[in-house]
Amino acid sequence: MINDLLPHIETELQKQIARLDPARTRLFHEMLTYHMGWTGEGAGPEAAGKRIRPLLVLLTCAACDADWKPALPAAAAVELVHNFSLVHDDIQDNSPKRRGRATVWTKWGVPMAINAGDALFVLSNQAIMDLAQSYPASTVVRAATILHDICLDLTRGQFLDMSYEQRNDLKLEDYWPMIAGKTSALLSACTQIGALLGNASEKEEESYRQFGHHLGLAFQVEDDILGIWGNEAITGKSAASDLVEGKNSLPILYGLGKRGRFAERWAKGPIKAGEVTAVAALLDEEGARSYASEIAREETEIALAFLEHANPRGEAGAELLKLTNKLLKRKQ
Amino acid sequence: MINDLLPHIETELQKQIARLDPARTRLFHEMLTYHMGWTGEGAGPEAAGKRIRPLLVLLTCAACDADWKPALPAAAAVELVHNFSLVHDDIQDNSPKRRGRATVWTKWGVPMAINAGDALFVLSNQAIMDLAQSYPASTVVRAATILHDICLDLTRGQFLDMSYEQRNDLKLEDYWPMIAGKTSALLSACTQIGALLGNASEKEEESYRQFGHHLGLAFQVEDDILGIWGNEAITGKSAASDLVEGKNSLPILYGLGKRGRFAERWAKGPIKAGEVTAVAALLDEEGARSYASEIAREETEIALAFLEHANPRGEAGAELLKLTNKLLKRKQ
To answer: What is the count of structural domains for chain A?
Structure first.
């Protein structure tokens, strides 16, 4: 089913982004199609990403026994929000590459990249309003309100992430509000909007929202674990390790809270690529890995319980569970 | 009447921005209240600006014989869009000051300023949805659609402005699509949304939209004239001259099209502050000033004709005309 949905998602995204196509602004349009993975060097599915967020919208909608086709503009809207935040994140983090390709700001400069991100955000607003073609205005207002509210959470999470870089007194409890904004907020909007457009009951909608929220938390913690002990982090590209990048990930905040040898080493300045294996082992010894794995397991269970409670139906319901399992057990 | 409206506008803006106030993100909230002119060094009405856009929304609404109070969230929304674009513009233009104060990016750095601009944009989306408290959902969808559509024009105008900096083959005709996006689009949204919320007829709403559009064009051309021959540009702060900044303003594009001595000088590289008086005089001799004045006069007439056609009523109608005259004849 996912393979049937994906081409529809791409077509809808291309339609939304084509609003920028007129003659004078063709290069502007090209910046967005490049970022979306459709044009330029290295274009293709790898560059486009997995479109997890729009899939969550459509599968949730269909798992409520509703037609997913009229929900396509909402699917495009969440993916556009995600990509707007990526374009701005790459500037903020000074990242030269994304999915193996040059980022928008490295290709066209910071001022143009800020504007390209703004445009993706505008297009997401326009996309969500396109729901008015198929749904009552009151539903459109609700869907847009959900999306706008979580966008504020996104900027709040981004603020926390950036402000943490200046701090050396971070505690474990500082982790959750950052991650709730940066990762969970948008995923909870995907499943909530999908349920809303699937005409779910209030109770089901709330269960889907909670499912998306905890899916986001579990997914992020798994990602944090891979960022230190995953194959890519340990071997070969060890510069990609969260230890080298100094990320405020859960295992690192846990390790700092222990005030042991890891915290001592951390306080002395950036971890170098050559130290990664040793420092990762140290952090493991101090219990950070098993702590994070336990949290990921708990959040996964909560997410799955809410999904079960939401009562997803039919083929889409089965696919939703499959996608969830794939997201949360990525090593398998 | 304007003096009655202004405190209501500020209160509504503060309410919208207070969505960012929770404990962990207080500094984030402070970035926005600083930019809005409410807090920090130099705070006050000078720093806040004239709130022309929200005034246009409310006066238009009231000039349709409707209550302006429920339209306040829309007034806040347009001002938030304006301020989002200012925060990002200041980064893009590398401007250290705005209204005599340090810009957000000079105070908190580019990454934080990008995020602060994003948040203002999110808040404008939330504000426009707040109309649902007083208007039917179908009206909210229409108002939001108008706002989102002109936001795309904004990013398009910004793209053109930035891309023009790399070009030396600009023609007079390149001016209008840039200005339509950068200045007119938002003003036309102000008057159109005001009319929509004032329950105007379709014809009146279209007249108000056109009024806002041409008001924007006339206003921008007047501003371009002041940017070269205004007191501030010629004397004292001549570094503020559009000639020194190399802006793609109407008189400059006219002068380039003449391919005379001005164009020759322009091609040789940036104008220095000491040359401003002489180059401004040269541009005047070549007819740029009278050309721009004639265009401003024409656009002003068109704007006023559309305003008359829209049939503004009562005290608000009179105030709308007064505000228009004030905006377009700023030297008086």
So the answer is: 1
Chain B hits for A141, CB-CB cut-off 8 Å, are: 129, 132, 137, 140-141
Q: What is the DSSP string of A128-148?
A: HHGGGGTS-HHHHHHHHHHHH
pLDDT at A331: 45
- For A151-174, how does the pLDDT look when each residue is reduced to its tens digit (9 = 90+)? 999 999 999 999 998 787 888 999
Is B114 within 8 Å of A136 when comparing Cβ atoms? Answer: no
Q: Whole-angstrom Cα distance, residue A271 to residue A244?
A: 5
Chain B residue numbers with beta carbons less than 8 Å from the beta carbon of A135 are none
Per the listing, tokens 């000033």 go with B289
Instruction: Look up the CATH number of the domain holding residue A38.
Output: 1.10.600.10
ipTM over 0.85: yes
* Burial state string for A243-280 with b = 16 or more CB within 10 A and e = fewer than 16: bbeebbbbbbbbbbbeeeebbebbeeeebeeebbeebb
B316 touches chain A (CB under 8 A): no
Listed in sequence order, the DSSP H helices in B64-136 are 72-92, 104-108, 110-129
Query: Considering only alpha carbons, which residue of chain A is nearest residue B176?
Result: A24
A307 has pLDDT over 50 = yes
Whether residue A278 has pLDDT greater than 50: yes
Cβ distance of A129 and B138 shorter than 8 Å: no
Is any Cβ of chain B less than 8 angstroms from the Cβ of A67?
no
- Residue B165 sits at the chain A interface (C-beta within 8 Å): no
Among B114, B147, B160, which would you mutate to test the A interface (most chain A Cβ atoms within 10 Å of its Cβ)? B114
Is B180 in CB contact (< 8 Å) with chain A? no
CB atoms closer than 10 angstroms to residue A3:
6
For the stretch B169-178, pLDDT in tens is: 888 999 999 9
pLDDT at A236 over 60: no
Question: What is the extent of the structural domain holding B297?
Answer: 2-328
Helices (H), chain B: 2-17, 26-35, 45-48, 52-63, 72-92, 104-108, 110-129, 137-164, 175-179, 185-197, 202-229, 231-234, 242-245, 250-258, 261-267, 276-285, 288-310, 314-328
Overall average pLDDT of the B237-261 stretch: 87
| Interface check A95 vs B, CB under 8 A | no
Q: Who has greater pLDDT, B272 or B238?
A: B272
User: Do A111 and B152 make contact, defined as CB atoms within 8 angstroms?
Assistant: no
- Residue B26 pLDDT: 93
Measured CA to CA, the distance from residue A261 to residue A263 in angstroms comes to 6
- Quick check: A158 and B115 CB within 8 A? yes
pLDDT in tens, B66-96: 999 999 999 999 999 999 999 999 999 999 9
Give the pLDDT band of residue A128 (cuts 50, 70, 90).
very high
Structure tokens of B271? 């104008």
Q: By the 8 A CB rule, do B321 and B300 touch?
A: no
| Residue recorded with tokens 């007819």 | B287
Residue that has been written with the tokens 């599915």 in this structure: A45
Say whether A197 sits in a helix, a strand or coil: helix
